[in-house]
Structures are given as structure tokens and as C-alpha cells.
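A further point concerns the way the authors explain their paired sequence and structure data. An entry of this sort, consisting of the sequence and the corresponding C-alpha cells, reads as follows:
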Amino acid sequence: MKQITSFQKAIPSLGVALGFLLFCLFIQNSVGARDAAFLAYPDEPSHFVGSVMVRDYLASGLSTNPYSFAQSYYSRYPFFAVGYWPPMFYIWTGFWFLVFGVGKFQALFMSAGAAAGIAWLLFTLVRKRAGFVAGCCAGLLFLSLTEVQYWTSAVMVDLMVGFFAFAAAVRLLSYLNRPTYANAILCALCCGCATLTKYSGAYACILPLAACILLGRFSLLRQPSFLVLHAVIIAMVAPWVLWTSKLSEVGLPQEQRGTIVSRVGPFLRESLRLFPPALAIVVVIGLVALLLMPKVWRQDMVVIVLLYAGSVGLLIVSPVVGPERRYLLVASASLLVLSFAGWAAAIKRFGGLRAGTWAIPALAAILTVSIVPAQLRGRPRLPENLIRRAVKTIVENPAWVGKRILVAPDLEGPVIAEFAIQDRHRPGYTLLRPGKLFADRDWMGGHYQSHFQSSEEMVAYLHQNPVDLIVWHRQTQEPLLAHQRYMEEMLAARDSSWHRVATFNSVDRSQPAWEIYESQPRP
């Protein structure tokens, strides 16, 4: 009989991973994410531009100091915060851009890969308890969650940090089964990558110690491989944390909002609200079944419970404003693993192993067919990207090469990100942010103070500090900030020195127009 190789055994699993990736790409395509502007979240353009900056530094041959390169880059394209955010997302995405080019699709592919990776890890865990079909269904159910779909279609770090944290748990299980140096290092690499993608993934670093204590594996604590595991984590994380320690409190509230005890309930409830109502009921029943059958608990369940507790617990004790659902993606995946384990154990206990072989996959398939299509149905396409048209007009005009450009005050990041895509000689323009040039405010947007008291003062300033172009957006929100209102008055004035040279209207008339204004010589 011909022996089956390890690669042949892995083919079905690899096929599932590919299927999950294609499913994520389908989600992105169905809403037009590739052609949309960077409007999913205020941080999205920052993550994109930061990745492009790393790519351009790599392409430069690492010829200069990275800090000096970033400073110079920021003076031209001032919308990234590498340093406040750890570097791993930007390193991975920067390398990806270096190989496959800079673009929204390439960046979204990283989001799709991270989401598919979480689903695949979920599949591997559920398959061991409930079988191949149930594992596939669990992965699809996770990817169909509204919150997962939304962030799969955005250039954000949350899915990547979730993937590394989940991978750390899976590698920890391998280490607990075989405490070798190789498994220790792989687990440590995942823990370090989770932390260096976003500090909200730091809980992954305490999983090994917590699991050993809860499982009573105290002998592991004395093994050299366990020390190597933590030494690798420290070697990866400590240099960056120490170097950027002065930024540790930037962007976070200084005080906790409410007591820790008062925050537990909202975060736990929100982790369940990621599921549609029907699926939430199924998940809760599976969790209850698991709790009532402690004999089926093994180290995989303990580690996943720790993963859930760590992902939610860090948020509860940290000074984040509230339970934003993007922070709870790992928690939702963990609950699916635990719930499927509970259902599988209950069916095998009351129906027998024979019934479990057909009942578990049948019920999982019915659940998936009932929920996934409904979750995908009716998702609206993202609005037309007028920013792309405006930026294209600028970069295709040779007379405007290298100009100083004032970007739209309400969408500074999306405009700068679009320049990062289309500018072939990055950074070939000097892009200026009205929110920095004309006003002051803190990281969270508070303590706002305009530098000017009238549009006349703003005009006088621009005469002394010339700007060649203004990319303008007819804003709809009210009230406008002071500097936004003065800019609008300045451009609307009859004797304005700014001449409108291009207007871009959407087929959807509810969308405001975009315009380009060029500075005219003073008489």
C-alpha cells in the first residue's frame, strides 16, 4: 500500500484555508472595497500610509536612518503614526507592497489573509472536537459575522493582531503536547507578533504561564524550553516598548471610565452581540452544555477559555472608552470554538458516538446554510471614490508636480492615502493638513483651538506661507470647526485669490462634490 505523505494529508486543510481566503475576497468584492476611499475608520489611512512609508524605506535600500527617513516622509505625507502603533503590521504590509505593488487591493489582501487565518485556526480546533464539516462551518460562520465582514473590507490592524493571538494559543497547545524548543520558539514568535501588531494583543504573552498554572503543569515552568519561550518574547517586544515608552499614554484616556467591575458586564454582553440573534442562542446553548460537562474539558478548552478571558480582560482593565466590537473579534472566535465543543460533547453523550458522526455535521451544515446567506444578503456597496478622481487629476498634470497642496480638512487621511497610491515619485508632493496648520487639538480631537479668528487672517497667513492647490470637499456635517468655516469663506469670497479648476460630482447626488482650487498670482 502506498504511504500517504504529510503533504497529502495537509491538502484538505490547505483547501479549506484557500476557500476561506476566497470567501473573504468575495466579501470585499461584493461591497466594492477595492475601489472605495479610506473611510472605514479614522485610523485606516494612517495604517495604509505607514505601510507605504515602510515599503519605500525598504525600496530605498535602507540607506538612511529609519527615524530620519520617517521624519522626512512625514513632512511630505503627514498621516501615519508608526511608533504610537507597534511596527509589525507595517513591516508585513510594507514587504507585501514591495513585492506586489502599492494599492488598496494589495492592502485589503492582508486583511483578507488575516481574517481567513483566524477562520482556519478556528477550523483546526473545532475539527478535533466536532469533525471536518463542523470545522468548516465554524470558520464560515465567523467570517460571515457583520463585524468581521466590515473589518475584512478595511485596512486595519485588528484582524492581524487577532490572527497572531489565536495562532499563539494554537502553538501553545502544540508546546503543551510536546514541550520542544521548536514549539516554544514558534509560540513565542506568535506572542511577540501579536504584541508588536497592537498592544491589545499583549495578553497572548501571559497565556503560556497561565495555562501551565491552571493545568497543573508546574514541571514545565522549570524546563529550559519554557525559559526560552519567554526569553524570545522579551527579546522581540522589550526593545520596541522601551524605545517608544514616551508614547505609551498618547491617545488613551488618562482615567478609567467607571470601575473595573462595572465594565465586566458590558464587555461580556458585547462579545455575544457580535453574533446574529439565532446564532447567539446556539452559541449560548453550546457554552452551557460545555459547562455542565466538565469531564470533556481538556487542555484545548482551558487554553481557549484563557484566550477569551485575556482578550476581554485586557480591555476591561485598560482605559479604552468602551467595548468597540472590533476589539472583540478574538473573543467571538473563541466562543464559537467552545460552543461547538459543547454541542459535540452533548450530542455524543446523549446520542452516542454513532449518532455524533452524522448528527454533528448535519446540524452544523443546517446552521451555516441558515445563517451565512442571510448575513451576506443586502450589504450595500461603498460610495463612489471621488477622492481618487481628484487626486488623479493632480498627479496627471505635469504643471503641478511637487506642489504644496492643502488637503480637505474633514478627510485629510483619505486624501493623503490616495496620493500614496497614485504618486509615482513618492513623496512627490508636500501635503498639508488644515487641522495641523490652522488649529491645535490633542490626539483624541479635544481641546480644539483655531489659530485664526477670521477668514481674512487665514488669507493673510497663506499670502505669507503660499500653498499652490487646495483639494476641497463640500462638507455636510454641522457645525463646522472654525478653521473649516474660514476655509469655506475664503474660497467662496468674490475677490478670492483661489480659482476653481476642477469639480467632481458623483452619480449619487446625495454625495457632495469635490473640487480643486489653484492659487492665482496677486495683482
In short: The chain has a mean pLDDT of 91. The beta strands are 404-406, 430-432, 439-440, 449-450, 469-473, 498-504, 514-519. The CA atoms of residues 168 and 485 lie 50 Å apart. The two ends are 92 Å apart (CA to CA).
